[in-house]
């Protein structure tokens, strides 16, 4: 990741959104980029920086889902009070009359209970501000707006922010299909980063599905910024968009890419259709030449020699009988013992009861979430020979 000196004179406050459990990783990414006043919060990280850092955060952060630029904070007593205070914001500074916009509203521990109604009130305040000032009002586009505005109300405190990302940052642009139960790309990158893989030893995803984890591992290993794959960001529609600055950020990121790897990255799955889909996704991500894809069951996989890291994200068993899911997890433990001596093994699962049937002692347990599902990233150290000899 590239680090630059932030121009403190032009600094402003920003919020990077993420998923539960990735806040510390995102804080480290932002700090490495040169962010100031970095403060982890719940599912987000507050920081400050200049416009260049805003572009870099969108372009380089692997564990951020959105980068927001707050523009107003105030207390609200009711819906009409919210409307009046939204009307006072100079929206012409952020939105053109011919541009479209959409509102995302989030309510936390608030007396307001209907986020759709709050979004409607904010929309009315913005549109009526334009009508009063110009006689015209911009249009709403819920699917693909030019400008996306975030409303966050905690108790009676309201924060308005402009979304600089547009589409969520986990939509890198390389994945077309959905797989059986796909991880989003931010979570996939977070799992790889939580494993503390040193990017110098072999890496295996033995149940790769649509390839998210193994592709994110290859991107990390090659130091390919996620933004090099993606074509559009929300800030490209802002009035102060600086194309030259973005090109500079893009060129720096391109120059930092490593040309090749001196270790193996392997992705395998029992289903031929999944291996084909993962391979196609890897091509779109630009890392097809870095990943060896194979079709086989985890128990039949012949991995590259240790040392290495193996990660699997097995089914959680919502639609699988209990006896079957327990037997499946038991077979994972057997495969680890037989095929992966000398490896650090990680299992990311939302079924902690089934995970007990792996039959191995964990050396680390990391609490994370896959959407609303509480999960654990479980680490098992597969020693060659006995632990005593190790």
Summarize it.
With 390 residues, this protein is of the alpha/beta class.
Q: Which CATH architecture of the largest domain would you pick?
A: 3-Layer(aba) Sandwich
Poorly predicted sequence stretches spanning 5 or more consecutive residues = 386-390
Describe the main β-sheet briefly. 8 strands, mixed
Strand order of the largest sheet: 2-3-1-4-8-7-5-6
Global mean pLDDT:
93
CATH superfamily of the largest domain: Vaccinia Virus protein VP39
Figure out the total of helices.
10
Examine the coordinates and then state which fold CATH places here, giving the name of the CATH topology of the largest domain: Rossmann fold
Q: DSSP strand (E) fraction?
A: 15-25%
Q: Give the total of beta strands.
A: 15
Structural class: alpha/beta
Give the helix level as a range of percent.
25-40%
Nearest-angstrom radius of gyration?
23 Å
Order of helices and strands: EHEEHEHEHEEEHEHHEHEEHEHEE
């Amino acid at each position: 990741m590239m680090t630059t000196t932030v121009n403190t004179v032009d600094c402003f406050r920003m919020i990077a959104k993420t998923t539960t459990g990735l806040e510390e990783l995102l804080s480290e990414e932002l700090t490495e980029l040169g962010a100031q006043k970095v403060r982890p919060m719940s599912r987000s990280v507050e920081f400050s920086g200049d416009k260049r850092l805003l572009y870099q955060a969108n372009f380089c952060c692997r564990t951020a889902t959105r980068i927001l630029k707050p523009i107003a904070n105030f207390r609200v007593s009711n819906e009409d009070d919210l409307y009046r205070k939204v009307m006072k914001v100079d929206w012409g500074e952020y939105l053109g009359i011919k541009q479209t916009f959409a509102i995302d509203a989030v309510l936390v521990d608030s007396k307001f209970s209907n986020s759709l109604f709050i979004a409607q009130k904010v929309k009315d305040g913005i549109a009526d501000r334009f009508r009063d000032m110009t006689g015209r009002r911009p249009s709403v586009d819920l699917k693909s707006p030019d400008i996306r505005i975030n409303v966050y109300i905690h108790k009676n405190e309201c924060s308005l922010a402009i979304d600089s990302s547009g589409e969520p940052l986990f939509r890198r642009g390389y994945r077309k299909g959905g797989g059986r139960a796909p991880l989003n790309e931010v979570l996939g990158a977070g799992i790889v980063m939580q494993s503390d893989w040193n990017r110098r030893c072999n890496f295996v995803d033995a149940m790769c599905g649509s390839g998210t984890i193994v592709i994110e591992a290859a991107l990390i290993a090659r130091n390919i910024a996620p933004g090099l794959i993606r074509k559009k960001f929300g800030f490209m529609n802002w009035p102060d968009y600086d194309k030259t600055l973005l090109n500079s950020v893009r060129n720096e990121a391109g120059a930092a890419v490593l040309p090749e790897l001196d270790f193996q990255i392997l992705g395998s799955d029992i289903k031929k259709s999944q291996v084909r889909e993962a391979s196609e996704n890897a091509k779109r991500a630009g890392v097809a030449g870095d990943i060896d894809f194979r079709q086989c069951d985890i128990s039949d996989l012949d991995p590259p020699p240790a040392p290495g890291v193996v990660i699997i994200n097995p089914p959680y068993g919502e639609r699988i009988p209990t006896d079957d899911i327990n037997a499946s997890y038991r077979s994972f433990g057997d495969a680890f013992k037989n095929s992966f001596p000398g490896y650090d093994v990680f299992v990311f699962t939302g079924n902690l009861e089934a995970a007990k049937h792996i039959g191995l002692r964990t050396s680390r347990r990391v609490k994370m979430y896959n959407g609303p599902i509480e999960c654990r990233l479980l680490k098992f150290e597969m020693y060659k020979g006995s632990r005593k000899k190790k």
